[in-house]
Amino acid sequence: YVEVDSIMSQYKFCKDYSLILQKKGQNIQNTLAQKQHALEQAYGNFQQKVQQNAYTREQAEQIQMSLQKQNSDLQVLNQRLSGEFQAETEKYNTALRDSIQHFLAVYNKDKKYGLILSKAGDNILYADKAYDITNEVIAGLNKAYKPAAPAKEEKAAKKK
Fold it and tell me: Tens digit of pLDDT per residue, the chain (160 long)?
């Protein structure tokens, strides 16, 4: 059996991709928060000027329609970014599963195990530590892992 939690915390691919996803998620949150804050400020400014009778009725209606469109655009952006993030997360999960399955297929050519289980939490109530191959699997996965070059280095290499 293989401890899934150990793979998630010790496999370099998981560590790298977790950081990437965390940064993307934070960027999305920051972008949406900034746009939401700007919209709230614009709406507050609009309300204040309406109370001061700074707009004609037509101007106020146009500005209100513009603010509603900005709000609608923000919701569309939120949905699009959330969808992109979900797709990126699914891509990562697929790549993780594929890398583990590929490694285990190669690893098991010599071992000839009839079954390799994943142990996460309490899904296996008892297992003799003699059957725990987690450290071997993590070492093999990390040895086989080739991290992607950072985007800046890739762009620099393309320009040359």
Answer: 999 999 999 999 999 999 999 999 999 999 999 999 999 999 999 999 999 999 999 999 999 999 999 999 999 999 999 999 999 999 999 999 999 999 999 999 999 899 999 999 888 888 899 999 999 999 999 999 988 766 554 454 444 4
Please tell me the pTM assigned to this model: 0.77
Tokens 């699914």 belong to residue: 90
Evaluate whether 141 touches 7 at the Cβ level (below 8 Å). Answer: yes
Q: For 123, which DSSP code?
A: S
- Indicate the SS3 state at residue 55: coil
In Å, the largest CA–CA distance within the chain is 82
